[in-house]
């Protein structure tokens, strides 16, 4: 239950719609959907006052719900020391409210507060993403090479085989085994079409952060797409993870779904590298309504893995399965957008 900063709860008196909302903000038991429905049609001054009360009682669902009724009222209330302190506490714990509210209100904040809340959103995303990523992710591959004095590993089975065949061995028969980190080159393509408020956009940013953590010492590209595809990190570009997350936080989140544009851009980025161990990850519901049928482009990927987002349109899931099959990759169904980070991490672990 939200806890106030010690202020006296507002006097309710005769119950009116406004006082009912106040009482529910103090109780902290309603959902954001409830608050949205309860505040529809209320005037700006009233909603601003409600938002200030929600900040006082640390009631994030109330702020989300009121923001859907009037973003400007909530943004004005949050442009205060009290609003910043509330989000600072949550961002420090890696809670999702910081990025979710930023995505909802970023177009209405003053430049000064927009910068503050973007920083807090980034802190929250990186904290929560690192918890998912953990440690010891990189797998190892064994590379055989010419043996040199001092090398501790060599191919014993091959050495025995040569001895049994020739009844003797010589120095050149010893084949050394070097253990190296597996080199992966990947591109992440994330569908940002439609309304991308709250949880979905936060998980999009977390997905980018997880890929960046996992391939920190390797090459990767990131593409966000809706009506068109936008490369927010090129394959041959070196970008700090803070800067990369800021690019996601400032990206557009509307429009139609053009999967073919994303796949074409992804292939273009992957083709910048000659190495064959390359993969693509597409996160989408498969319901393309702009561009060409994306399935022919999937055939050109070395491995194209699909995280299929939930949709009521059955044909979208079919497209996702086809893309994975044609792209020689894995198909993984996502029941909730909150599953995206962990399912992506599971996929990347298998790639390592």
How do the helices and strands line up, and which of them pair or pack?
Elements lengths: L16 H11 L4 H8 L4 H13 L3 H10 L1 H8 L2 H12 L4 H9 L5 H23 L6 E7 L9 H11 L8 E7 L3 E7 L6 H17 L5 E6 L3 E5 L7 H9 L9 H12 L7 E7 L10 H4 L5 E5 L5 H13 L4 E3 L6 H12 L1
Describe this structure in words.
This protein has 352 residues and is α/β, with parallel strands linked by helices. The protein has 3 domains: 17-132; 140-181, no CATH class; 185-351, 3-Layer(aba) Sandwich (Rossmann fold), CATH 3.40.50.410. It has 15 helices and 8 strands. The strands form 2 sheets. It has a 6-stranded mixed sheet, sandwiched between helices. Strands 1-2 form a two-stranded antiparallel sheet. Strand 3, helix 10 and strand 4 form a beta-alpha-beta unit. Helix 1 runs parallel beside helix 3 (44-56) and helix 4 packs parallel to helix 7 (97-105). The longest helix is centred in the middle third of the chain and has 23 residues, at 111-133.
């Amino acid at each position: 239950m939200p806890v106030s900063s010690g202020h006296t709860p507002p006097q309710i008196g005769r119950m009116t719609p406004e006082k009912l909302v106040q009482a529910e903000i103090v109780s902290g038991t309603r959902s954001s959907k409830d608050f949205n429905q309860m505040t529809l049609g209320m005037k700006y001054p009233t909603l601003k006052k409600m938002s200030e009360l929600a900040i006082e009682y640390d009631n994030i669902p109330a702020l989300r719900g009121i923001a859907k009724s009037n973003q400007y009222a909530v943004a004005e209330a949050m442009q205060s020391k009290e609003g910043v302190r509330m989000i600072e506490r949550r961002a420090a714990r890696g809670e999702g409210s910081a990025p979710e509210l930023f995505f909802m209100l970023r177009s209405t904040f003053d430049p000064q507060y927009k910068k503050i809340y973007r920083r807090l959103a980034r802190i929250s995303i990186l904290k929560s993403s690192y918890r998912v990523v953990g440690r010891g992710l990189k797998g190892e591959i064994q590379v055989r090479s010419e043996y040199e004095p001092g090398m501790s590993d060599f191919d014993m089975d091959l050495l025995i085989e040569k001895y049994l065949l020739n009844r003797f061995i010589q120095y050149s028969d010893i084949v050394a085994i070097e253990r190296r980190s597996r080199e992966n080159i990947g591109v992440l393509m994330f569908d940002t079409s439609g309304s991308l408020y709250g949880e979905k956009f936060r998980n999009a940013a977390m997905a980018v952060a997880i890929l960046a953590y996992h391939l920190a010492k390797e090459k990767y590209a990131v593409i966000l797409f809706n009506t068109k595809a936008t490369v927010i990190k090129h394959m041959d570009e070196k970008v700090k993870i803070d800067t990369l997350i800021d690019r996601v936080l400032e990206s557009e989140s509307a429009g139609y779904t053009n999967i073919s544009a994303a796949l074409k851009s992804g292939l273009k980025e992957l083709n910048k590298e000659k190495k064959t161990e390359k993969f693509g990850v597409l996160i989408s519901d498969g319901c393309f309504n702009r561009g060409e049928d994306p399935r022919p482009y999937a055939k050109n990927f070395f491995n194209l893995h699909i995280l299929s987002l939930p949709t009521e349109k059955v044909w979208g899931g079919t497209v996702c399965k086809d893309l994975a099959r044609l792209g020689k990759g894995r198909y993984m169904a996502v029941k909730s957008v909150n599953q995206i980070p962990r399912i992506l991490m599971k996929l990347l672990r298998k790639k390592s």
